[in-house]
């Protein structure tokens, strides 16, 4: 491939995502567990990486950062997840791409056949790297020695390219017969496969012993005394999970199948705790009460702050009205109790002042009318006094 062709091929791949790609409604919802173990997610990763593998990179860490960012953006355009799971999805994605590239390069190196997604230029560069790079030769020799060690020989994968979940589906068959998880593990990790006479590796033999002990406990808990009655699939998987244990978030000897069982168990236990545990409901009620109390406190503080700000801005004291039932008369401004006064808008204060003036005018008119009436009544009494039986007062009448 010429440099011109390589450049023309690489240029559009570095373009940013379009608006349609970012808002793709057909994007698949995924979780970190799905990114790490789901086969459909891996198939999409293969299409992304294989379709945009433009350099002679021997492993994931050697890939150009811009190209890795391009792969990640294309992955984001095809998948969706919750905001809280963003960091976990990114970690699972990086791990999945890295673990997929390692066996892919290994198969290509052993077979000497160019993968369909690699260009001639990339393939020639990879072959040159595998054959001439001294660091790679040293790492390859060390890895071969470690694989042939006694510890490594104890547990070697004999399941080929298919994952353990696919082996289980094949063993179940169209008749959907029940297959124990232990049988699947023996099939994948024993050289003889389903041959019952094949010698089990020590690690698998130890796992079988622990598994049988857990099965006995499960049967006792469920009251299954008859030997012909087998555990259901969920109980069988849980027994193997407890026998194998969890190490760094993974289940030994179970691969992606162990992640699926672990995810199902954790999801079921969390849902049971939400339904059955009454303490959670009580804590939720207490939390809601505390939140409501906090909202009321904030509202009171905001109201007091507004009153203080308006008061300090220069409003007149008559713009505040007192609560006479609860608070005594405040004699002057210096002793004003802010809690016993309410703020009035200028329009309300003017309206109240007008009402007070009208009341004062009415009271003054009433007093004047009363005085006139009293004066007229006094004149009439003075004129009638000589004819009355009561002697007149010696007071001079003007």
Summarize the structure in words:
This protein is an all-alpha fold. The chain is built from 16 helices and four strands. It has a two-stranded parallel ribbon with strand order 1-2. Strands 3-4 form a two-stranded antiparallel ribbon. α10 packs across α11, α12 packs across α13 and α13 (233-244) crosses α14 (255-276). It is elongated. The model is unreliable at 1-15, 268-276, 326-341, 385-390 and 392-398 (pLDDT under 50).
Short description:
This protein is mostly helical and 398 residues long. Helices cover 63% and strands 3% of the residues. The strands form two sheets. It has a two-stranded parallel ribbon with strand order 1-2. Strands 3-4 form a two-stranded antiparallel sheet.
